[in-house]
TrEMBL record:
<dbReference type="InterPro" id="IPR050152">
    <property type="entry name" value="ChlB/BchB/BchZ"/>
</dbReference>
<comment type="pathway">
    <text>Cofactor biosynthesis; Fe-Mo cofactor biosynthesis.</text>
</comment>
<protein>
    <recommendedName>
        <fullName>Nitrogenase iron-molybdenum cofactor biosynthesis protein NifN</fullName>
    </recommendedName>
</protein>
<dbReference type="InterPro" id="IPR000510">
    <property type="entry name" value="Nase/OxRdtase_comp1"/>
</dbReference>
<comment type="function">
    <text>This protein may play a role in the biosynthesis of the prosthetic group of nitrogenase (FeMo cofactor).</text>
</comment>
<dbReference type="Pfam" id="PF00148">
    <property type="entry name" value="Oxidored_nitro"/>
</dbReference>
<dbReference type="InterPro" id="IPR005975">
    <property type="entry name" value="Nase_Mo-Fe_CF"/>
</dbReference>
<feature type="domain" description="Nitrogenase/oxidoreductase component 1">
    <location>
        <begin position="19"/>
        <end position="447"/>
    </location>
</feature>
<comment type="similarity">
    <text>Belongs to the NifD/NifK/NifE/NifN family.</text>
</comment>
<dbReference type="InterPro" id="IPR000318">
    <property type="entry name" value="Nase_comp1_CS"/>
</dbReference>
<keyword id="KW-0535">Nitrogen fixation</keyword>
Length: 469
């Protein structure tokens, strides 16, 4: 059984985790026509914005209520209302995602009541814009939990309830019947709730696989449509691409919900409670067995056998496993990541014959930590990680771990958020058959590039011993 050691230091040394508001903002950025709004000081937003821009290399529409000293003491409702009205007037977003910060949360304000009052008093001015609140104080949790809270909030506050969803499904069918010459889309709709650790390429690849079974995926949030590196033909004050607000309204018409990552269990459970849509959570989509289970599940709900292309991708992964396992056997791996990504990567390396000698994560709240194949897990920072990873053959974490790798003289495999010192991190596949194959090649190539070749002195010494014998 894995032993989980809590954080005991009073200060973080080279922090590993990113904050809850940043995780929530990333989720809101996966909605078309959205603007995340940090309810706090300008400084809180600036740090998050810098990380997002450096990671994605894109323009990120992240805004702030810019609370000052007076608002911090007396209350920030006026700043919140002013910010919402300004965003509506200047950008006319389809959704404003409010992410509370520690500065606002420590005062224990009733944000739900404040937003309800703003919506009621400014109903005419705010028509056509959804306002969603996610309570995400910086002093609690981490990026993973902020992402999950934002997705939960969107389902809670936008998705139509059970009776409404069923009525909407019926109305859609009637509308299609009454339009002559229109061919109704008979594909079953599947709601996909991806975890934060899926890249733009992962989500796009996941969509393609689901569609190959004749299913219609609705992905929330869908950063593959909004942060995929495309350049619009004009300046856009909001996100462009991603999940539409209308699709979020209609999530209850799906025949199945699929969550990817344990932190997506809560929003999946909420969707089932509100609309009756059954759900399944896949804790990882990396590794042959995990992907096999996912493919079998898609085949079961669609009634369609896996197409030849998927069989070919599986065969390629099998060949990659044969080619790559020589490079992994006995290797010592140190991983520092959010809980679900820690589980994803640890099971991947263990499956190839490596050993996890150090595992550091951001928060102890996730139940997935109990399943991580490691002797112990430290809740901590990259300072703890450096102390525990000295004997590793490979360190696996984000770009803030590069100093750790340099000081220890150990190669670094960059994963997660943020990755700001390499290009193309969002277009790197890590899931399903192709993603697992690519991850095998990437890690094996790092091992090969850093092989410790015997020096001439060592070889000469061996020859002398053989000649003496």
């Amino acid at each position: 059984m894995v032993h989980i050691h809590p954080q005991t230091k009073s200060a973080a040394v080279n922090p590993l985790k990113s904050s809850q508001p940043l995780g929530a903002a990333l989720a809101f950025l996966g909605v078309d026509g959205a603007i995340p709004l940090f309810h706090g000081s300008q400084g809180c937003t600036s740090f998050a914005l810098v990380l997002c821009v450096r990671h994605f290399k894109e323009t990120v529409p992240l805004q702030t209520t810019a609370m000052d000293e007076l608002a911090t003491v007396m209350g920030g409702e006026g700043h919140l209302e002013e910010a919402i009205l300004n965003l509506k007037k200047r950008a006319n977003p389809k959704l404003i995602g409010i992410c509370t910060t520690a500065l606002a949360e420590t005062r224990s304000e009733d944000f739900e009541r404040q937003i309800a009052n703003i919506k009621m008093m400014r109903a005419e001015e705010l028509a056509g814009t959804e306002i969603v609140l996610a309570n995400t104080p910086d002093f609690d949790g981490a990026l993973e939990e902020g992402w999950a809270k934002a997705v939960t909030a969107m389902i809670q506050q936008i998705t139509r309830r059970g009776q409404q969803a069923r009525h909407s499904r019926k109305a859609t069918i009637i509308e299609r019947i009454t339009k002559p010459g229109e061919h109704p889309d008979k594909r079953k709709k599947v709601a996909i709730l991806p975890g934060w650790h899926l890249t733009v390429a992962d989500i796009e690849h996941l969509r393609e696989m689901v569609e190959s079974f004749g299913l219609k995926p609705v992905i929330l949030p869908d950063v593959s449509g909004s942060l995929d590196g495309t350049v619009p033909d004009r300046w856009m004050p909001t996100t462009y691409g991603g999940t539409s607000v209308e699709d979020i309204h209609e999530l209850g018409t799906a025949v199945q919900c699929i969550g990817v990552g344990e932190h997506m269990r809560r929003p999946a459970e909420l969707l089932q409670k509100l609309t009756g849509v059954p759900y399944a959570v896949f804790q990882s989509l990396t590794g042959l067995k995990n992907v096999d289970r996912f493919v079998s599940f898609l085949s079961e709900i669609s009634g369609v056998v896996a197409p030849p292309k998927i069989h070919r991708c599986r065969a390629q992964l099998q060949d990659a496993l044969l080619d790559g396992h020589f490079h992994f056997a006995g290797k010592k791996i140190a991983i520092a990541a959010e809980p679900d990504q820690l589980y994803q990567l640890a099971t991947f390396f263990i499956g190839l014959g490596a050993e996890i000698i150090s595992a550091v994560t951001t928060t102890g709240a996730s139940k997935i930590l109990e399943k991580v194949p490691a002797e112990s897990i430290q809740i901590g920072d990259l300072g703890d990680f450096e102390d525990l990873a000295s004997d590793a053959d490979l360190v696996v974490t984000h770009s803030h771990g590069r100093q750790v790798a340099e000081r220890l003289g150990i190669p670094l495999l960059r994963v997660g958020f943020p990755v700001f010192d390499r290009l193309g991190s969002q277009h790197k596949l890590t899931v399903l058959y192709q993603g697992t194959r690519d991850l095998i090649f990437e890690a094996a190539n790092v091992f090969q590039a850093h092989q410790r070749m015997p020096s001439p002195e060592i070889l000469d010494g061996l020859r002398k011993r053989r000649n003496a014998g």
